[in-house]
Amino acid sequence: MNWHSGFRGFLEVWRCTRRLLFVLAAVVAMAVGTVGVGAVTAAADTVIGTVLVGDAPEGVAVTPDGSRAYVTDSKSNRVSVIDTASNIVIATVPVGTTPQGVAVTPDGSRVYVANAFSGLLGEVSVIDTADNTVVTTVPAGIIPEGVAVTPDGNFVYVTNNFSNEVYVIGTADNIVATTFPVGGRPQGVVLTPDGSRAYVTNSKDNSVSVIDTATNAVVETVQVGASPHDVAVTPNGKFAYVTNSKGNSVSVIDTATNAVVETVQVEASPYAVAATPDGSRAYVTNSKDNSVSVIDTATNAVVETVQVGASPHDVAVTPDGSRAYVTNYDDNTVSVIEITKEPDVETTTRLSPPTSAVKGVAVDLNAMVSSTPSSGTVQFFDGVILIGDPVPVTNGRATLSHTFTEAGDHPITAVYSGTDGFLGSTSQVTTVVVTDDGGGTGSAGGVFGS
User: Fold this and answer.
1) Each residue of 335-374: b (16+ CB within 10 Å) or e?
2) I need a surface site. Which of 17, 69, 248, 366 has the fewest CB within 10 A?
3) Residue 164's CB: how many other CB atoms inside 10 A?
4) 367: Cβ–Cβ under 8 A, 6 or more apart, which residues?
């Protein structure tokens, strides 16, 4: 048997089967008259577990596969390793004195821990995640605190709270590649998703330094609220969220202009912030309120406040967006928050083809999807027969140019597939009368047509 022809045959069977399944699904939807499907009301985010760790837990980072959470126990001089499936500490790793920030490399093989008062000045412990042992330590300036790894895994950025510098460590040899000055008392640091910029909070100057990682030079300084502590960038790289610990607020920076575009009031002494993988929420720990504020990034409004342990410091969200891990400094625990996804928005699909057409003359079939999603597809049908391929939806609209090949009445429907955050829906049937001659409207569009 010729492999290539056999494979093409298999693909054709698969395409036919897929189209048949699509038709059957659409027929069921049309039979029950689906014109928008209601959304289920979601429950609030809740603490589903509390993990006892070492003394005064400070930083937390989750591995890229989501299987482990690494917690710095600042007064125990160790790192607790939590199995996220069972939420049990499965290992403890001795590190330097007063461990603070922690970050995991993109491949999950190494964990970098800033030890504020270890050695002559301070140092970074490098943990091998395969056996949870420290493989080396790197001198890292005076009071190293914040840690972030570049998206390509090649460098680690470490803030030095006393010397007002950032140290850049090469991960290939774990040697400091360069240092550069920033503002007063730098604390938090984050890299943009493309790795081109680093954002550093300067708590003494009430500012954020924007660093060009190609030159490791500060290219802009953004004034924010009082005593900024931590910073997180949304996954699309468009916004940076900065906690202002003495301002009880979060500054939202537009990374395109590096201007503060919004200030969100939260609870007392916001400490750390983390964004969900889909970018829809930002989680902010309020250290003097024993709570976590949940910000809807679409509106920059606090939509929920979750009570956690005493003096919450850091927060990390799992890669699948289902959990948030919060370190509670004063009660030696980690709170595990179950993140409840926002309910999908129901949609309504309206079809507006011409009421009549001429055989052999192209017309536009238009579908408008309410709630205006900007993704998903619309499949048009003539009865139960698919008309062409699914059409991408842009700004709630899909248009297909179609030529009818047979005269008569054609029952047309449009089925919206749904997408992240939006439910699917099916239009009502609209009949197009197709004639053999000029009795139709030809290429005239529908109500929403061109």
Assistant:
1) bbbebeeeebebbbbbbbbbebbbeebebbbbbbbbeebe
2) 17
3) 19
4) 349, 350, 351, 352, 378, 380, 391, 397, 398, 399, 414, 416, 427
Read off the tokens for 449.
Answer: 């047509």
**Which pLDDT belongs to residue 375?**
86
Distances (CA, A) of 86 to 50, 72, 324, 337: 11, 19, 14, 14
Residues 284-328 pLDDT 10s: 999 999 999 999 998 999 999 999 999 999 999 999 999 999 999
Which CATH superfamily is 22-40+344-435 part of?
Answer: Immunoglobulins (2.60.40.10)
- Angle at Cα 433 formed by Cα 429 and Cα 437, nearest 5°? 160
Q: Which pairing describes strands 425-426 and 165-170: parallel, antiparallel, or unpaired?
A: unpaired
Under 8 Å CB-to-CB from 8, ≥6 apart: which residues?
none
Provide mean pLDDT across the span 89-113. 98
Cβ distance 51 to 84 under 8 Å? no
Q: Can you give the residue ranges of every domain in the chain?
A: 22-40+344-435, 47-338
Q: Which one-letter amino acid corresponds to residue 78? A: R
Residue with tokens 């802009």: 220
Higher pLDDT: 353 or 161? It is 161
CA gap 269, 225 in Å, rounded: 12
Closest to 369 measured CA to CA, from 345, 401, 339, 404: 345
Q: What is the pTM of this model?
A: 0.74
User: Taking the C-alpha atoms of 84, 90, 93 and 99 in order, what is their torsion angle to the nearest 10 degrees?
Assistant: 40
Q: What confidence score (pLDDT) does residue 347 get?
A: 94
Instruction: State the pairing for strand pair 430-435/356-358.
Output: parallel
> Which of 174, 92, 77, 189 shows the shortest CA–CA distance to 144?
189
One-character DSSP codes across 362-413: EEEEEEEETT--SS-EEEEEETTEEEEEEEEPBTTEEEEEEE--S-EEEEEE
Q: Which of 34, 77, 73, 46 has its CA nearest to residue 57? A: 73
pLDDT digits (tens, 9 = 90+) for 227-271: 999 999 999 999 999 999 999 999 999 999 999 999 999 999 999
Q: How many CA atoms lie within 13 A of 337 on its CB side?
A: 33
Give the CA distances from residue 97 to residues 73, 79, 94, in Å, rounded to whole numbers and listed in that order.
10, 11, 9
Residue 316 CA to residue 310 CA, distance in Å, equals 17
Which class does domain 47-338 fall in?
mainly beta
Between CA 99 and CA 58 the distance in angstroms is: 8
Q: In whole numbers, what is the pLDDT of the chain averaged over residues?
A: 89
Residues with Cβ within 8 Å of residue 182, at least 6 apart in sequence? 159, 164, 165, 166, 200, 202, 209, 211, 218
